[in-house]
Specification:
heterodimer; A: about 200 residues; mainly alpha; Rna Polymerase Sigma Factor, Chain: A; Arc Repressor Mutant, subunit A; 2 domains; 11 helices; elongated; B: about 100 residues; about 75% helix; transcription regulation (chain A); sigma factor (chain A); RNA_pol_sigma_r3/r4-like (chain A); RNA_pol_sigma70_r2 (chain A)
């Protein structure tokens, strides 16, 4: 099963002992963040469970390509994101075709990005919202937009780390984040309105 | 005469400069505000922010809103712990 187990020395100077040590020291502390990321991507508990397991097993199998001293959390998030795209997005309950359309429309419409920032939402109204309402607004975004907000605002990655995790240039990180936030404001606005927080 | 006419207009101009009620480059400012809050602003963006932020009401409000949303996302959105059985499965598969 685990072919590399029999080898005493693998690439990058990883001995068997070191593999376990690095796995426990560098990877395991991020398991809660990884689980939450998986859940917010898949929006399904079973899929999130599988995705986290698959990611950690892959991380262990390919640990020799992890350079010690680099950002383990970003490395793990990148594997998880790739597994999500390759294995889960296809069978995801979320209609990805609609997602792409919405993403395309928003990307291509300059008008959209010029008008959405005027969303009439006050900071006080946002302060009134509870965590579930903020989470629901976030979950209502197309997955690509949801992802950049999770990475930046919930997990605290830098733009450079996000660019590596998502395999996109930093300029794209900036613009996608900007548009994601405009969309999020619209969703928050409708929550605030429905709760009567904005009057 | 000239002076008396000029004085109020200078004052008016000064008042206009102290507080702006509209922002002619708000779309740009929004990008700067977000970069500042993300701690990713370039030196030019930081300069723009320092020069404009304290005298532009739409930008001050936008800054408050963006900060509030960012803070809400990091502090209010619930983070669940990873279920113990997943942890156990991972550990047992790796040691198996």
């Amino acid at each position: 099963m685990l072919v590399a187990m029999s080898e005493t020395l693998t690439n990058n100077g990883y001995t068997d002992d070191l593999r376990y040590e690095v796995f426990n020291r560098e990877f395991m502390p991020h398991i809660d963040s990884m689980y939450n990321f998986a859940f917010r991507l898949t929006m399904d508990e079973d899929d999130a469970n599988d995705l986290v397991q698959d990611t950690y097993l892959k991380a262990f199998r390919f640990i020799s390509s992890f350079e010690q001293g680099t950002n383990a959390k970003a490395w793990l998030f990148r594997i998880l994101k790739n597994s999500f795209i390759n294995d889960y997005r296809k069978k995801s309950k979320e209609p990805s075709k609609v997602d792409y359309q919405e993403v395309e429309t928003t990307y291509n419409s300059e008008e959209a990005s010029d008008t959405t920032y005027t969303v009439d939402l006050r900071a006080d109204a946002v302060q009134e919202l509870i965590g579930d309402e903020v989470a629901n607004a976030l979950n209502a975004l197309p997955v690509d937009f949801r992802t950049v907000i999770i990475l930046c605002d919930i997990e605290g990655f830098t733009y450079e780390e996000m660019a590596k995790i998502l395999d996109i240039p930093i300029g794209t990180v900036r613009s996608r984040l900007h548009r994601a936030r405009n969309l999020l404001k619209e969703k928050l606005k409708s929550y605030a309105s429905s709760m009567g927080y904005d009057s | 005469m000239n002076a008396s006419l000029k004085t109020p207009s200078v004052t008016e101009e000064a008042q206009k400069q102290t507080m702006k009620h509209t922002c002619e480059h708000h779309a740009e400012c929004m990008k700067v505000i977000q970069a500042i809050l993300d701690d990713e602003a370039t030196e030019a963006e930081k300069d723009h922010f320092r020069e404009n932020m304290d005298k532009c009401i739409p930008c001050i409000e936008a800054y408050r809103l963006e900060k509030c949303i960012k803070d809400s996302l990091s502090s209010k959105v619930q983070k669940k712990p990873c279920p113990q059985n997943i942890l156990n499965t991972i550990i047992s598969k790796i040691n198996g």
